[in-house]
Amino acid sequence: MPTPATLDALLVEERVFRPAPATVIEANVKPADLAEAYRLAEADPLAFWEKAALELEWHRKWDAVLDASNAPFHRWFPGARGNIVHNALDRHVHIWTKNKLALIWEGEAGDCRKFTYFELYREVNRLACALRALGVSRGDRVCLYLPPIPETVVAMLAAAKVGAVHVFVFAGYSAKFLRERLSDSRAKVLVTADGFYRGGRCINLKAVVDEALDGVAGDAAETVVVVRRTGADIDMREPRDLYYHDLLRQESPEAATEIMEAGDPLFWLPTSGTTGRPKSIVHGHGGYMVGAHHTFRTVFDIKPTDIHFCTADPGWITGHTYGVFGPLLTGASVFLYEGHPLYPQADRLPSIIERYGATIFYTTPTLIRMLMRYGPQYPKKRDLSTLRLLGSVGETLSPEAWMWFYKHIGRSNCPVLDTWWQTETGMAMLSPMPISVLKPGSVGKALPGVAAAVVDGQGHSVPPGQGGFLVLKTPWPGMLTGLAGDEAGYKEAYWDKIPGVYFAGDVARRDEDGYFWIQGRADDVLNIAGHRLGTAEIEAALCAHRFVAEAAVIGVPDKIKGEVAKAFVVADPAWVSALPDADALASQLREHVRRELGPIAVIRAVELRQSLPRTRSGKILRRVLKAEELGEPVPPLSGEEA
Ligand code: PRX
Q: Are residues 222 and 144 in the same domain?
């Protein structure tokens, strides 16, 4: 740590922030507890995680905390049995949390629905009974293509309750993307909605589903359960399509919870990688539950009176771990919002914080930058005094955005926790704690029980302050259990790059105090508004267009979204006679990618080229294109590339 004299100087310059005395006094994890957690985790990491597992209820205890005999296919809590839903829901109906609000939801138009733990329990049971009646049982896949509405939470829990695996496809993904995930997973049932509201528009989700189901693999999605959210006139095809409310009407509010093995899959989440196809990250019941519960209780410092407002859609890992499972596992009250964060105007999120008395606000740098653009007058109009903790995730939060968030949302009174983690890690890995000294722009230290390091390409630690690859040296309970149907891909993507350690795919540095600073991705994955998108996936989508002969995609900086895509295209000469000009071609290609991949695939510009720079073996040299684009010196080619 800095010496007292330098610390004083840094405090004055607002480069570090000390926790307020009240935060320390009230924290679940006080400085002495944190020191003890680090001591135990260092001396005996498995004992540390076993202690965390003992905070939850199990049907049967584990034979060992970790089975690493078949590394890197680590098995956490082998022999243990239970179900995450028992801890997230069932047990609450026997304790004081029974009548506490589990979920508060607001629709974009301002409509509000609230569920106590007991009410949520009964609704989940009804859907669980209905799923069983539809023939869904242990190990079956149930696909969820749902917007942020209460039934989404219900469906996640009901699937888990009957032992099924939910395959969540974020509602912004395209029909093609949904069709592929349905075909890959052979999901028996698809749960979706007629639509939802966003940005003042009524989005017809069911039409996308109908398009996806045309041409889906044989037995996938035999039944489609449709939540009536908007009441729009949609096409219901009998006998395939059933309304959720019709289905639940007759069902019992009691349903048995399937007893699962700790390693049994709980959900799949598709995410982009460096290949042309997304991969499905798999998380299991036991380890994921321990990671989500422990980090939510300690990092988010959860209190019985908290209202936790997480802006992430449940269709992403943040929505899973800190929007649904973490909060419910700790008996917290969680707030979910359906619509656009700036609708009808830029004070929507501050207005939600004020009206519901949110105490924790967990969001993304893109959202913070959007709020910054509209200016502090919007949060200033609102009473944000209930807030006591702020969090950020998904992208680098610059010191400038950190300060704005701290001052204008947190009123210089709430710690800002910039948490680093991934779909794969399942839980926060690097993060300050509320009692930590904070450094704007840094994601803090590795949490207790997390062995993170910055290394060179051979796996050797680099000195403090020097950039390198971010790796995790030992397994952790929230880790993915694998990639669906792709054992070799799991090993290759995460464990073979630098033998013996988990390769996160990020470039980072660690300072003298052990604080990490994330510098960006080390691979060809873009981070557009916090959403991962592989350049190869966008290129594959472009190449599927009849006027594209070759395509290369790079990320370029964007003031709000952090990064957007730019495409370099070698066009098929046929376009000249079909379209009026290059602008028409560019907008057609942009629209095509949007349709293929969904609205998160934002292409800012399309540049036509005669050819693309390639290595001798034919690989596209994206870094050459990027250097040219940013006006930087073109890096010399390595031996292999020349
Ligand atoms: O590059 C890192 C970035 O987001 C990636 C993980 O993306 P995803 O699996 O979609 O999960 C996002 C939400 C957990 C990481 O490899 N990332 C995540 N958190 C941060 C971050 N970059 C900088 N700072 C963060 N706090």
A: yes
